[in-house]
């Protein structure tokens, strides 16, 4: 097994790296797919819910208005007083007055009303308005026998054939049955609603090719368009929607044709009917399946590309080693001691001379080790410090999003400007050394952003002598100190916190102080923090984070061991962190 997989450099690279690359590509693709799928599902359901909400509100408004007109007409004293009145006693002016009122309602709501009708005393008083020139008739027995239980006599009826006006139209109805007790003392006030009006309203909102909106009442349902059999509500689901006491909800079911369906519903307040969106799950989530298939396809492409590139790189890396190994095989083990002169192939002379030069350069390289280690530490600290920025950027962008969501665009714009200036100074064209003026400007942007995020939780004051602004400082020295003052100082106390930034000079040094009025640090913990500041970088830290350690180490590397951080604190009174640096102006060698 080892002969084939770990035998050479090329086979080792392929054996170790190809599985790792495949695993990471697969995990990345799977996570990306899951996140995208979750977001698309959330958006799809939100869109359907928004459609239901908007359509329901519109229908609620119109139906409530129509119902109020029915209440107004049927409660008219002139009409109620005619119940039980002989036809001979009904004066012509009664007809004129009531007809005028009925005509006003019909003309005003003609967009939704197909016909309106008043029938009192089983036809003794009869008025109507309709688009049809027919002789309408209404069966008191059908209505008074079928509709009972409402104290006020108001009822809604879902889609049905217009049997009163003898047309082929489908209508919905809202009506009032008036019953004074005697068999002849009865009346009906009825409004027929246009089915095409509901079709237009419900079909304005497209929910996929086979999705649709439906109005469900205890006595039936109205579908906004012609629905294929496999997508129709079955009797069990329809009955569940008709009897449920929940005002809104969502569930899924499998149709009789085996189609997975999603139902999202809400309740119209005017008549307590359910407005439901019925959508095939395959349509509402069709983009999800597309993303899954596309993700699998791209993962396979990336895996194949990774295998090819790894093989190519492995061959490219191993070729020089194979040549060197071939050359070394020509050397006898006893001749490993390097003599001043050697015989053999020209390649051996080159290797021999190369090893002699290597021995002579060992001392020089040893002298360079310390410098290289210091450079390595600088790179480590720079990389580790860069890892802090993404968290701050994420939190700041999330705060900007919150301001935008609340309509505070001016505040969001100021925060974006401060963030831009913050990173512009932080980048500093790759320079590690900047002026104190730039560093102060950098932290002012940082403090502005933090103050926008935390509101009145803390305030700050910057008091730096103008004379020291032109001196040099390691960039990103103050920001970690201020961050600690915020999170471990002022945020841990009750009431508003205060952060002060001071800067002044002595004879040969510059002192920058960051103080807060937080809870301070206990004496034992402060001693441990001071010890960890001076400890080895590799040693595990319990009390300080990478920020403080990085600032202290970078100052010492650039300016010397006598400079760096100093922390003083009194428990319950606050903390002061001081930076001590030399007075240096202008460009310096950053590799030192």
UniProtKB/TrEMBL annotation:
Q: Which catalysed reactions does the entry list for this protein?
A: ATP + protein L-histidine = ADP + protein N-phospho-L-histidine
**Coiled-coil annotated residue ranges, if any:** 355-382
The entry's keywords: ATP-binding, Coiled coil, Kinase, Membrane, Nucleotide-binding, Transferase, Transmembrane, Transmembrane helix, Two-component regulatory system
What InterPro entries has UniProt attached to this entry?
Bact_2-comp_sensor_kinase (IPR050640), HATPase_C_sf (IPR036890), HATPase_dom (IPR003594), His_kinase_dom (IPR005467), Sig_transdc_His_kin-like_C (IPR004358), Sig_transdc_His_kin_internal (IPR010559)
Domain Histidine kinase residue range list: 478-585
What are the TM regions of this chain, as residue ranges?
12-31, 294-314
Per its UniProt entry, what is the enzyme's top EC class, as one word? Answer: transferase
Pfam families, alphabetized: HATPase_c, His_kinase
Q: What is its EC number?
A: 2.7.13.3
Quote one Gene Ontology molecular function term: kinase activity
Any idea what this protein is called?
histidine kinase
| Taxonomy of the source species | Bacteria, Bacillati, Bacillota, Bacilli, Bacillales
